[in-house]
Description:
By secondary structure, this protein is α+β, with helices and mostly antiparallel strands.
Amino acid sequence: MDLNYSEEQNMLRESVARFVRDRYDFAQRQQCLSAGEGAAFWSRFAELGWLAIPFSEDQGGIGGGAVEVGIVMEGLGRALALEPYLAHMVATQLLARVAKESVNARHLPAALAGESRLALAFSEAGGRYHPAFCTTSASPLGDRYVIQGAKSVVPGGQHADLYLVVARTAGQARDEHGLTFFLLERDHPALRVREYQTNDGTGAADLTFEQLEVSGDARIGELHGAYAELEWALDLGVAYQGWEAVGAMSALSDATLEYLNTRKQFGKPLGANQALTHRMVDLFIAVEESRSSVLRAALAMDAESPTRRRRELSLSKIAVDRCARFVGQTAVQLHGAMGVTNELPVGHYFKRLTAITATFGDSEWHARRIHRLDSASSREAGVEHGH
C-alpha cells in the first residue's frame, strides 16, 4: 500500500498551509475570539472547496475521502481554528449517508456552499461517552412526532442552522435499539439553544426540546435503527479530530523548538542543553507517531468490517491522546510559567489538546471498547470451532 500523498493531496496540503500562514495567525485567531466571530472564515472555507471534499460529484462534492478532510483538519489544528469545521463535516456526512435523496437534495447544496451549518446532537448529561445513552424521546402523534428532552455540549451547536438529533423512539435509556435521527431547524419555536464558550475557545451549545412537534418528514433514516450509523459518525469524528491534534502538536513542537533556540541562559540558548535537546527529539517522535496513527485511522473508515473500523479508531484515539498529553505538558514545562499565560499560543494549544483527549470518548473508554470487541471476537471464534 502506497502511503505517500498523491499530487492532488499535496496540492491541498500546500493550499491549507498557505491559507493558515497568510490569513489565520494567532493574533487573528485571538481577535476573532474576542469579537465572538467563531466562524469568520466560513465562506472562505466554502470557496476553497473544503466543505465539499468528501461528497460525491453527484451530490455537488469533490469526491475525496477521510484523508483529504484530515489534511484540512491538520492545518486547522495548527491554526487553532475556531470554525466548527469538524462538527459540520461529521453531521453533513452522516446526513448524506442516512437521509433520502430528496432530503439531501434539499439540504446538501446549502451545506456544501457554506450557506448553512449542521451539528450532530447526541450527548446527554449522565451518558459518560456511551453512544446509545439517550433519554430524549420522540413520541408518535398521528403522522407527526413530539420530541421532549435535552442534549448537552453539542460541538458547533452555537453556529448551527440545522441539528441532526438522536432521539429515542423505543427501548430503555442505554439500549442500542430504538434510536432514531431527526433533522430540526434552529428557529423552531419549541427548541431552546443555550450557547456558551468552552475553555479551549471552540464553544458549544445545549439544546432543550419542550414538547417540540415536527412532521414525519423530519425523521431521517431507519426508525429505531440509528445506532450503527451514529457509531460510524462518532468514529469519523475521532478520525478527523486526530488530524487536528496532529496539527496542534506539530505547531506546539515548532513553537517550543523556536523558544529553546532563542531564549538564552548563561549566554547560551536553552536548546544547547543536551537534556532539552533530547526532550525535543521526544516531541518530534510523538508528533510523527500520531501522524502515522491518524493516517491509518482515516484509511480504516473505509473498512468493510465495522468491528475492524471500531478497533482501529479506538487504537488511534488512545495513541493520539497519549501523545497529545505528552506534547502539551512537555511544551508548557519547557516554556516555564510563560507557558500558561494567555499572551503566548502555548497555553491555548495545551487547552485545545486537553479538550481533544476528552472528546468522542477518553482513552479509558476506548480501551474498554477494544476489550469488548476482542472478547466478542474470541467468543465467535470459539463458537465456530465448536468450543
